Amino acid sequence: MKDNKIHIYRTRTKILLSFFVCILTLVIVRFFYLQIIQGNELRELREQNINAFEYIYPKRGRIISRDGTVLAEDRKVFSLAIDIEQKPSEQSINKLADLFSEKIIVEDLRLKVGNSIRFRRTEIVINKLTQEDLAKYLVSGADITGFSVIEGYERQYNSHPSIFHVLGHMGYINNSDVKYFSPRISEYNSKLWSKVGKSGLERVYEQKLQGEHGKRFFQRNARGDRRVVTDISPFREGEDLSISIDFEAQKLAYELMDERKGSVVVIDLQDFSIPVAISTPSISANDLRDISSSQYQDLLNDPARPLFNRAFMGLYPPASTIKPLLTIFALNNGYTNWDETIFDDGFFRFEEEERIFNAWREGGHGLTDLEKALVESSNPFFMNLSIRYEKNLFVEFLKSSSFGSKLCEDCYPHQFSPLIDDNWKYKNFGKELYKGDFINLGVGQGYMLTTPLHLSLISGILAKKGKYELPYLVAKKQNKLSVIEDITDEDWNKLQSSLIDVIYSPNGTGYRINAGELKLAGKSGTAQVVDINSREEYDEVRVNPLLRDHAIFIGYAPYDDPRYSIAVIVENGESGGRVAGPIAKKVLEELLNDF
What we know:
The protein is α+β, with helices and mostly antiparallel strands. It has 22 helices and 21 strands.
């Protein structure tokens, strides 16, 4: 009996000792794990709880027009944000929601707090605090923890809608932005709560405009309150951007469009900078600053497409405005000369397909040479030329005139005018170009499409006798000079004389512009929206305003010493000479009056 009790006692003692040994072992293992394995990480975590930092927002650079108007600048604002270094308590959340009950919904605030903690990113609770809001928080929010007032800047734009597509706008950064800007983007702007340029010059020159963000380091006490600033890393404010836009001429061009859809683009032929580039309709960039997703969707769905940059992205048939450029090609390759004549009786017969192409003037132009074909815009003359073109030579000439290639150094986004060759047609229609295609291409219809920017450049090529550079928006940028060669001075002079007669001869398609003393040379065009082959058919379709022809005009002035080239497109405006040309005249007069 006694031995049995001793045995039980010893057994219990062993169990108890084993239990204590296990506990001690676990404590030692845990101590080893925390001190040795996770020691550095825990020490860093402790330092993070004591030592914290906040970003110092640099002031973004201004964007200034060539006439000195500030078009975009930063203005200081204060916002109430969730402090990512200190989790707000439920009590603080409720108190803040009560304090700003008219601006904060407590359920939304809890969601923002959760996102801030989960993704360790700053969430704005109230954007752009008013003076009243700021005073209310500083006085009544002393015992509210986990939130802080942050100082920042808000982008302010000149409110005139003419400038929106050139400047672009700012927006919260997303993963595609990080990929686009990497590795140029700063550490600060890689955070998904920062803003970057989304379009226009704001995007192209993001790195220059944004500057470099600094950091302000500080320590917290046990309650998490900021105690003392320990260090400040340097920051650099963004650089100002001087651009080539003449704001007065820009506004005038926009107003002359009178709410019609279209574009005006001007190139300064002294340096190929762009003083005017408008797309209508448009909006103020300020309208996008606090826009809701539903409001933004409404803009995207607007049939007038106010967000679409027609100046750099719109593709239009150049119509008759392409004829002077193709005249260079035809003369250079011996397809015609200034003495060749045809009888234009109002149509062109393509024998291979037994097809008739009617011209715009019923009855035609009669006996027509190259000069008359340019001045009066004879389609049959240029259609007759086009069936002689050799495909490879034609494509190479288009390449030399910037078809299929970059058209601007810093226009964003911008579309190139497609290069119409066999590869293009195979890709889009599964077949190669044939001779009949060149009939429409020869008069700027069919597959041929150009942007307003490209048309203005083509006008500049005509003015500068084949010499041109890539246009740009930011001043003092050097570009490589391109030259269309092998054209004699005599041919250039006759071509330019014809473009003057387009405007000043009573038979010229631009005579109604009434250019007066402007010394304007140019070419008008009327681009078909639907494929029709008679005046009767057009009278039927024009009942729908959206099916009316586009009005186009390209030109340059003064013709004896060209300073500016211009392209004007008025969608569904019908007459290049009557509608687009007068706009070009007034814009050029405004620009030339400055000099």
